[in-house]
Amino acid sequence: MPSEHAGEWALDPAITFLNHGSFGACPRPVLEAQRRWRDRLEAQPVQFFARDLPGLLATARSDLGAFVGADPDDLAFVANATGAVNAVVRSLRFAPGDELLTNDHEYNATINVLRHVAERDGARVVVARVPFPVASADEVVRAHLDVVTGRTRLALVSHVTSPTALIFPVDELVAAFAERGIETLVDGAHAPGMLPLNLDRIGAAWYTGNLHKWVCAPKGSAFLHARRDRQPGIRPNTISHGANAVLGGDGAGETVRGPGRGRATRYRAEFDWQGTLDPTAWLAASEALRFVGGLVDGGWPEVMRRNRELTLRARSAVAAALGLPENSPAPDAMLGSIVALLLPTSGPLAMAGAGSSPLDTDPLQRRLVDQYGIEVPIYPWPVPAASSPDPARRLIRISSALHNGPDDVDRLAAALDELGSASGRPT
Ligand SMILES: Cc1ncc(COP(=O)(O)O)c(C=O)c1O
Q1: What are 186-245's pLDDT values in tens digits?
Q2: How far is the CA of 81 from the centre of ligand 1 (A)?
Q3: What's the CATH code of the domain at 356?
Q4: Has residue 425 been placed in a domain?
Q5: pTM here?
Q6: Ligand 1 neighbourhood includes 110 CB (under 6 angstroms)
Q7: Given Cys at both, which of 226, 268, 304, 350 links 231, Cβ 3.0 to 4.6 Å?
Q8: Beta strands 16-17 and 75-78, pairing class
Q9: Nearest CA to ligand 1 atom 14
């Protein structure tokens, strides 16, 4: 059965698109909303940037805050999660011998950021080894706590991991690290729109999420949330006017700047102006929240439930095609709207040449798109930046979004069945 919602997206109907996770996909009405913002910007750029934008950003932050369970004043719009991780980690200073803790399920680019700053300061990156397949969320917590030392200063963990698509127990991790005096940066690139969020309850020092993935906002829409006590000193990657802007008010950075504009802090002032850029993807995020949440009765909780249900179906169908156990690779509770499964290490599907990022393409990935019109990513795990002593395995990662239906999953399972059989279809 095709998805009854597929027509709302601009995706090519000739392609079975099972890779919502890498870059998201934006519905047409949301792109139209972005176009309207652009028209308004271009009609009077000075009015838009100099006079209207602060209030417009405050409204967009307020809509976002209600969705992710955060005070809007603690949220800053950024272009993407990679940029937010850069802003936080590069703003921090470490002493020689300090340890930056992460794990081997993290995204290649964000581990690179840790390595860059560790090299700058003479610190060390410690990579916890989390099993895959994984038996429980407790295993994830234990793998991290086993490598905490008195020198651990920062932990970087994903809410939903990129190569392995697992929901990590971030509430427990943040609390366990906090008990040991360690601040956490949560990489929630996949979480908004996939999982219900309450950032104030999670309580991480910093949390970043993409809106262009599962919220289906236009590309370049993401946020950084900084806990109030960890905002000072966190600076955007672009230093601009906010660095010496007069904050006004009582000088404590606590006063309200104007109607609907929020608290006048250095954090706000710096992140709200990162040079001239196109802010329309941020402004259109409100329409994405409204439109996608309005596509099904029951709103966002139902969107998330439906996507997860299709993921569990994809897990069973593809696991069967690959000869894996039905409950691969994790308990149901650790799966959201993506699932990653190990490809065989021998036989026709064991093609060599896996890359390291979503921009590289594995030979099987290429074959699925060229021969079957199926777009689905295949990643190496662990990623190269994890510097694992183990050889990388190949994972196929299937996304289930509202534009997907059961027939997309069935097509993939049938293609893998065919390619995995001795002959496969001729290329
Ligand atoms: C866990 C994780 N972190 C960071 C990113 C990077 O997202 P972006 O390219 O939007 O910065 C991704 C993208 O897939 C991801 O899965």
Answers
A1: 999 999 999 999 999 999 999 999 999 999 999 999 999 999 999 999 999 999 999 998
A2: 6
A3: 3.90.1150.10
A4: no
A5: 0.96
A6: yes
A7: 226
A8: unpaired
A9: 22
